């Protein structure tokens, strides 16, 4: 292809509106896929050689030339030209300059930018997903390590942001780690659907030179081949699915960020963020703002917006390739960067977070044990619906006296029900309360240890 000519320019003689040229091009953001584009072209060149379209010398020239182009990208020496509307155009144009347009021009035989871009995106995304998997596992390792180290800290558990029952701090941490393990499993499932080969589908009808798509699959490391050529060039479900995955993991990140924002306030003072993940106020010198957590919370909306926006672009597109599909790249690239950065920021926040067990202990109040007071009678055969009412009466009695339920006397409790005995005072023990929650998934130490083991088993299963 001569420098300055469009890949599609043979039919057109008029000049394109300069604004339309800029509106149409994607090189400024899809150039990040240069590696994927070169890998796909090398594999396709080998497939053309198998069909006798290239001879040995031509194949070698193309492979060597493509590596030269790759090195220029890596070294920051690749010089873009006005005609380079996308990464495919740029690489083909430069390959022609390096080895001559006669040989380079054969590379696109039977191949369309439609199947080329679909292949490049899948190649690029699957490599990025491998990096996401690594940093997600690192985050889970931090969760597990903190949970193991701080397992003896007992804190109030909350529903409706009201103190509810005592739990272990580690149980709280692991309640957020578990959705992340689901995200890890889900990521590997998405990967299998990303890793399907479109190359060899041509523009929409298939390849006219009978290239060996099974060879291409093996050469490029895909798990399978997209069996319908029209679907191969049209499908962007893999983009939407990854952006959905990004939205899910960001929603999980947002929820723990919200909890930590609350717990870091002076009203709670359960935790303090490292200076590396907080900022000060421009006017109030006493403040330490949890900007990292607020940004994590805010960027969850950004990730969802990327997915929703592209789904609206896709929903009305007719069959096969349409230029609307170019709108897949910017939201995908942005979602990928957002989720990678966010996972790493949360990992940094958690690994440097200071927990204040003394302040957490002071927040434990006897009303957290009202359910335990009801369960005391359940163990003596009284139906829970009755004991719930009786325990509520004890709470009301304490409130009317301006005291707490643990300061009521044994006689007070006996006045509410005769089965209350002297040992009722043992109910008001936070450690004993959490240890009673010993069914699988509970907050007893043995259950929390099992949760940590479970997370580490999942990490080991998906690490490689």
- Please tally the helical runs, counting DSSP H or I stretches of 4 or more residues: 19
Structural class: mainly alpha
The CATH homologous superfamily of the largest domain is called Fumarase/aspartase (Central domain)
CATH fold type of the largest domain: Fumarase C, Chain A, domain 2
Number of domains: 3
CATH 2nd-level architecture of the largest domain: Up-down Bundle
Question: Which parts are unreliable, with pLDDT below 50 for 5 consecutive residues or more?
Answer: none
Averaged pLDDT: 94
Oligomeric assembly: single chain
Architecture overview:
The chain has 464 residues and is mainly α. The chain has 3 domains: 9-109, Fumarase/aspartase (N-terminal domain) (Fumarase C, Chain B, domain 1, Orthogonal Bundle), CATH 1.10.275; 114-362, Up-down Bundle (Fumarase C, Chain A, domain 2), CATH 1.20.200.10; 366-442, Ribonucleotide Reductase Protein R1, domain 1, CATH 1.10.40. The protein is 61% helix and 5% strand. It has 19 helices and 6 strands. The chain has helices at 18-24, 27-30, 34-50, 56-74, 87-99, 101-104, 113-149, 169-194, 213-220, 229-234, 237-263, 291-314, 329-352, 357-362, 370-378, 384-401, 410-416, 430-436, 445-462, and strands spanning 154-159, 162-168, 196-197, 224-225, 271-272, 354-355. Strands 1-2 form a two-stranded antiparallel sheet. A two-stranded parallel ribbon has the order 3-4. Strand 1 (154-159) and strand 2 form a beta hairpin. The longest helix has 37 residues, at 113-149. It is elongated, with a radius of gyration of 31 Å. The protein starts with 17 loop residues before the first helix and ends with a helix. Pfam families: ASL_C2 (PF14698), Lyase_1 (PF00206). Residues 368-435 form the Argininosuccinate lyase C-terminal domain.
